[in-house]
């Protein structure tokens, strides 16, 4: 074993061919979403002609000289290889793709979706400050606000997700630094008027964070006032129920420095193997999502026609209370929605229907290729709005890639077993 090669022409981490030829590098301007997802984040000539970005695993990065070390370390928030935790080619390829999905400039990949929710809260809030979180927030995000944030001296209040600008104005305090949003809300799918709320928050000097996991590319956060967008890549990006990842995307350099510095301080990192799986998932995501969205709508409409059902909660259905916001702000959606059964049924009866389904798994998470049904009635926490948000036993459905007719037949057999 000799010395590591030191020829900067061959080994310098800034060699232009080392940089993934992602959407940011001008390969895809003006093309449609599926085309961009097929062509973005790929390595070009550097990888011996193979189509896909390989998995680059690594902790140590070798520098061509001591002087280069200092110069490169000073640029560690750029897409420059300085040490494993700063990311490598596989991470950067995925970052570029995710930024492209949401119309941001930079994205940071986190080990889970939840880590992507908590990272910007920690990046923007300090002891003595106040944060506003919608009452319909993803449960574990509430848990971190009630646990760690509280312990660090940050106060949170919960607000009605359907609040208007004046309502938000009344909740702002001098020390409110973050307006957290999630639209639609977890389990109950309320939509938020993000542009109106963002305007009020910005006038107050607060940052607007949004969990955009449901909307994916159908809600473009940075054209609607969001400063920091969060996604659980675990869902449709992974798409196969075999990977956990999250992303934090920003549009401004100032926000990038804030979020990326916090990530480095805390030691956030995602495995390049998982990033590679997410990149692979992205290639087919537009088509999976398109199919699943349409199949989900077909199943949701079928539920709406059933006498056992009180209400289907799907933002894309005209029956949704904030459907006008959906039409204004979204270009589509995904295949996750809620079904509220008639109050004449109890949770036990509805759980028995779910237990009897042949094609629907019972489990958390969503966005995979397989259908899921998850009773949610007892798992909904509300502290700021009416606890009776759901008027009957409720089940959250995720529609996968099975034949829609088979799914409906399975559901039909289940509902036919309920007393009229
Ligand atoms: C699943 C989910 C998350 C968390 O993602 P994980 O990768 O499971 O940690 C965050 N927000 C929303 C809205 C989710 O549905």
TrEMBL record:
UniProt cofactor(s): pyridoxal 5'-phosphate
Single GO term (MF): cysteine-S-conjugate beta-lyase activity
Keyword check for Cell wall biogenesis/degradation: no
Chain intervals for the UniProt region annotation (Disordered): 1-33
GO BP annotations listed: L-cysteine catabolic process to pyruvate; transsulfuration
UniProt pathway: Amino-acid biosynthesis; L-methionine biosynthesis via de novo pathway; L-homocysteine from L-cystathionine: step 1/1
Keyword set, alphabetical order: Lyase, Pyridoxal phosphate
N6-(pyridoxal phosphate)lysine: modified positions: 235
Pfam families from the UniProt entry: Cys_Met_Meta_PP
Bias (Basic and acidic residues) ranges: 8-21
Catalyzed reaction equations: an S-substituted L-cysteine + H2O = a thiol + pyruvate + NH4(+); L,L-cystathionine + H2O = L-homocysteine + pyruvate + NH4(+)
InterPro entries: Cys/Met-Metab_PyrdxlP-dep_enz, Cys_b_lyase_bac, Cys_met_metab_PP, PyrdxlP-dep_Trfase, PyrdxlP-dep_Trfase_major, PyrdxlP-dep_Trfase_small
UniProt similarity note: Belongs to the trans-sulfuration enzymes family.
NCBIfam families, sorted: cysta_beta_ly_B
UniProt-recorded name of the protein: Cystathionine beta-lyase
Source organism: Teichococcus aestuarii
UniProt gene name: metC
């Amino acid at each position: 074993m000799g010395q590591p090669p030191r020829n900067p022409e061959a080994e310098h981490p800034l060699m232009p061919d080392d940089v993934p030829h992602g959407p940011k590098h001008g390969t895809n301007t003006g093309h449609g979403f599926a085309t961009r997802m097929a062509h973005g984040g790929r390595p070009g000539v550097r990888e011996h002609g193979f189509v896909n970005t390989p998995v680059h695993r690594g902790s140590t990065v070798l520098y061509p000289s001591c002087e280069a070390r200092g110069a490169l370390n000073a640029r560690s928030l750029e897409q420059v290889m300085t040490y494993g935790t700063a990311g490598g080619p596989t991470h950067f390829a995925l970052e570029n793709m995710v930024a492209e999905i949401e119309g941001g400039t930079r994205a940071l990949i986190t080990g889970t979706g939840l880590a992507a929710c908590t990272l910007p809260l920690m990046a923007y809030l300090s002891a003595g400050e106040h944060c506003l979180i919608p009452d319909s927030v993803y449960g574990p995000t509430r848990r971190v606000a009630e646990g760690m944030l509280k312990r660090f001296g940050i106060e949170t209040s919960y607000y009605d997700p359907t609040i208007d600008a004046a309502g938000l104005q009344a909740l702002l305090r001098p020390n409110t630094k973050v307006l957290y949003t999630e639209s639609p809300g977890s389990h109950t799918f309320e939509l938020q008027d993000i542009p109106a709320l963002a305007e009020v928050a910005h006038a107050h000097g607060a940052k607007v964070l949004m969990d955009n996991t449901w909307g994916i590319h159908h809600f473009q956060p940075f054209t609607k006032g969001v400063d920091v967008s969060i996604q659980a890549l675990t869902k449709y990006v992974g798409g196969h129920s075999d990977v956990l990842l999250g992303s934090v995307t920003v549009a401004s350099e100032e926000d990038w420095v804030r979020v990326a510095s916090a990530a480095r301080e805390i030691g956030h990192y995602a495995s390049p193997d998982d990033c590679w799986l997410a990149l692979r998932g992205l290639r087919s995501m537009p088509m999976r999502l398109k199919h699943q969205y349409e199949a989900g709508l077909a199943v949701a409409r079928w539920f709406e026609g059933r006498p056992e059902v009180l209400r289907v909660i799907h933002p894309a259905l005209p029956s949704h209370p904030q459907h006008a916001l959906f039409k204004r702000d979204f270009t589509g959606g995904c295949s996750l929605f809620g079904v509220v059964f008639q109050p004449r049924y109890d949770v036990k009866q509805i759980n028995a229907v779910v237990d009897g389904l042949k094609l629907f798994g019972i489990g958390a998470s969503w966005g995979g290729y397989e259908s899921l049904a998850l009773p949610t009635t007892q798992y909904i926490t509300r502290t700021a709005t009416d606890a009776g948000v759901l008027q009957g036993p409720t089940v959250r459905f995720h529609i996968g890639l099975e034949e829609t007719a088979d799914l409906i037949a399975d559901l039909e057999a289940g509902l036919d077993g309920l007393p009229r």
